[in-house]
Amino acid sequence: MIQLENVTKVLSGRTILSNLSVTIEEGETLVLLGRSGTGKSVTLRHIVGLMQPDSGRVEVLGKSLTETSTDQLAAVRSQVGYLFQDGALLNWLSIAENVALPLLETHKLAKSEVDQRVKDALREVELDQHGDKLPGEISGGMRKRAGLARALVSHPKIVLHDEPTSGLDPISSSIINKLVNRLKTTGITQVLVTHDMNSAFEVADRIALLHEGQIHALENVDDFRDSADPAVRQFLEGQISGPLSRGLLDGSSND
Length: 255
Ligand SMILES: Nc1ncnc2c1ncn2[C@@H]1O[C@H](COP(=O)(O)OP(=O)(O)OP(=O)(O)O)[C@@H](O)[C@H]1O
Ligand SMILES: [Mg+2]
Hints:
binds adenosine-5'-triphosphate; binds magnesium ion; six-stranded mixed sheet; Rossmann fold; four-stranded antiparallel sheet; alpha/beta; single chain
């Protein structure tokens, strides 16, 4: 379904991903953890084709994104919903117009079909009453949900969530977790980046820890929770010292 093979990416002279390999199976929800700045968002950007690796291969839905034409890339991208970390809503468009954007970019749908899909997506995230508002007129949590509606509106086979619950109150987080779990029952494949461990344990089939440019650990939920790996333990217990506290690849600290 999604395969990254020996992906290396250097950004501003720093090696962010270093021979990273991971396979995400059809229908699974994989949670990607890691310290801030380790390259989680960069990894998602490779899966949606917004970034190309310096070396290595990225395959999504049976198509290589690294050896493909622009048209093919657009075709794959139209099947991948991407919830940006910062919401990335356009401030001058209404919520409904923002949600419609992916349909206008890649799908040739009649206006009535676009309107219906936008309505359905907004209902899904409980924003049906707020489609006419501007992003600046709704709360941060609502903007997150609007971003999720935009990720779902094209009926994607894959949804990538970048910190869907960050900055949300516990109840709003539960609503998002419930939605992710509901999407799971539809057979959709999901990759979810989070620092919210409650959310991770609630939605994940498997959990991966990104460290030093690679998938350091990848386990099902119970094995991850019980892992004896020092880096996993440090992350789960939030210890200040441990393997995750060493400098990143270039030797500098990330603190
Ligand atoms: N377009 C870019 N140009 C240069 N450097 C970048 C670019 N995008 C990301 N980086 C750098 O790559 C590193 C990884 O960034 P990334 O956004 O993937 O981190 P992250 O794991 O998602 O962190 P966080 O948990 O804080 O969101 C960071 O040091 C960041 O500054
Ligand atoms: Mg990030």
